Request: fold
Amino acid sequence: MGLWVVLASGGHLVVAASEWNNSFMLLGRERERQRLRAALDRARAGTSDVLGLVGEPGIGKTALLRDAAEQAEGMRVLRARGIESQARIAFASLFELLRPALGALGRIPAPQARALEGALALRVSEAHERFAVGAATLSLLAAHAESGPVLVLVDDAHWLDGSSAEALLFAIRRLIADPIAVLLGVRRDEPSLLDGTDVETLVLSGLGAADAAALLPGLAPDAVRRLHLATGGNPLALLELADEPEALALAPEGAPLLVSARIREAFARRARSLSVAERRVLLLAAASDTGDLALLARAAGRLGLDPAGLVAAEQAGVVSLAAGTVEFRHPLARSAVYASARAQARRDVHRALADALPDTDVDRRAWHLANAVAGPDDGAAAALEMAGVRARGRSAYAPAAVAFERAARLASRPAARGRLLRLAAEASWHAGLVERALALLERAQSTSGDGDGDGRLDLEELAGRIAVRRGPVMRGHDILAAVAERVDPERAAGLRAEAAAACFYAGQPAAMLKIAERAWHELPEGASRRTRFLASAAVGMAWVVGGDAAAGERAVERAIALAEGSGELRHDIDLLPWLAVAPIILRDATAGRRLLADALKGARARSAIGTLPFVLTLVALDHATTDRWDLAAATYREAIGLAREGDQRTVLAFGLSGLVRLLARRGDEAECRALAAEALELCARVGTRLHELWVLEGLAMLELGLGAAARAHRQLERQRRLATECGLTDPDISPLPELVDSLLRLGRRDAAERLAAEFAEVAAARSGAWSLARAERAGALVAAGMPLAEARFEQALVHHRHTPDVFETARTRLAYGERLRRAGRRARARGQLRPALEAFERLGAAPWADRARAELRATGETVRRGDPSARDELTPQELQIGMLLADGRTTREAAAALFLSPKTVEYHLHHVYLKLGIHSREELRLALSAAG
Reply:
């Protein structure tokens, strides 16, 4: 028996006595082992650590992972390994990983438990949004770790099936304060779940010369030197090429060797040393994705082969046999065996495996059947289609897309191919694989026959929805409007409502009005409540922004009444964005605001992470019009993070532009300008001109707050030109009141008076309290005498009482106080300036608070800066957690709502208590209430 062995991973191991001794040490890996031990120690101490081990095949990733498992005393280990041939099986690796933790399912939120059970085929499945299983994975890992520290090991993570990879990535990116260490082995230069993330990686290099010599004690020093130079110190390559000295002798000094190719050839050569029958059994094992010896024995019997041939393969150093399974010494060994076989031989073993699988394993059978045919085969295509349907039903959209696409290749009829490609495109879209979805749509459109009218319409509808979500949004409008002309009236109304929403964000009120009015006026008799809600909301929005504002408000109120009277509508996940939009349009202090809270609560409860970013932006927008600016900022940031994660560009533009407006009012200059630049570039790409207007408004308000009247005027003029170009007549969008302010500061009184009069007419036509308040303030600013100015300021404050916008009310009070002070009425000025200052300080509008403070001092009042509030102390996530807990949520409920673990919530809560100097939930409620 030899002293030196390589485990199945290809890692380099030194066995102390013999290859049967399980204790080992790793050569030349002390730095890496130290980092892995640190990860384990952190988990034992109660905090999370996530690390990726990256390197070429044979560099020792698996050996290090095995070593970490050996060092994990006192920890429970969850393991999984990506297998290339399993990458098409929905949630195959996630089930392998989480199986030991499934006893904790009862301790996670029920909707998440249902999503995970469905995904893992533990119950009758139902489709959820793509990230719902990720949220459940996080909760299950956290619940499993409540009983003690956990080590999560995933080897060959680049081969995880797409659904498992996405769920795992969602979870590990949110681990902070749980006793969990996650170690991922990833092959260098292979796409993996680590791509584009901020997960720390440890790149493994080859062994040094001294360690290479220790690994190969029987070789002459010169041979070791040449091997080391040729292989870069790759341990597997060193060991494999040491067995073929003739290859090294024939290579010129210093010549590079194609290491992976040579290693594959080395394994292939070992396989060729076997008999024909033994090689066929070995090919059977290579084609199997389970390594189950019982299955291989049944399949071998169908081919008339003796499964004992695997013993010879083990003796040849290609596989190892243990505990009823066969495992290849290295993934390259499997690849070498499979690739070197004839095509018909591969098809034969796949057919045998399909026949040998139990009736319950229908998905694996479908894939083996697909690999067993040489050309079109409708039976295999049907089996794969059903595998795709099952995967889609378990929210495994990426594997479903692969199954549908492969089934399309096997289908013999063009109509079937077009239908399957459409299913593949839809699944790719739901999986977040947008570019793939677009490519499949194009193929499906060119494949579908003229007789497949409904299929073509479905394809176009999907293309329209993708364009609305990703841009250009008006392209989405055009496609949806065209589809609406060719479908039944009920479906057409819904499509036109969606197209109208696209126009809204594109800043195209004329196009919006045209299609929204058709949605409303062409409602079929007996239309469902859902369709009536959509049409009413859409036409109401259209009339508000570009037509009859009063009629628009009445239509939106009708939509709100329909939703408030129907639990079915309020719980329809596809309607959540519309439910949140309706009360925002009214800018009213009460109307429909419960719908906002219900929409957010519903999205969080159902882990509707695809819908959630849009709902969050609307909720943040609502908070920004009240005194809850801290929560608005935190909510915008959550929306932006989720939109980036899901590549939702239209929603991302919405979130960025909203946050820019908020940061501008607070005077956070550096971040405001940086996000404004990103938002403007994104708005141009996706075509959301409304959001571009918001960014320009934000930049103008930043300059006004900083006292830069000339720069503010330039931005406001840009905003005005863009609004005019788009044909937007909604006074809520108009920059005229701010232009009045900037013109007066620049000494251009005549121009200011003209704009104030112009805006008064527009605001009166809509008669909304928010616009009327701004109109009265603008009129007061240009009023010639103090009595008239005072009357108009007082009227503005009356209108403000009917809106929740604390900032605008404070601006009116500030302007009122400034005018009173200049008129020498200092005592009355203080009555306006004090509440203005208090509001600005509570909001965190620092530049405006400075102005109010300076005006108060000018009245002769001694003013000091306000004490720091919770806003100044807490991070956005700490504030969100604090608000949820202060609102009466339990730790687990807050964790479920924010897609965090309970331990992470407790970790942030501890910091909240420290920063605010409090010790209880009641004190937390009082502290955050005092901060607004």
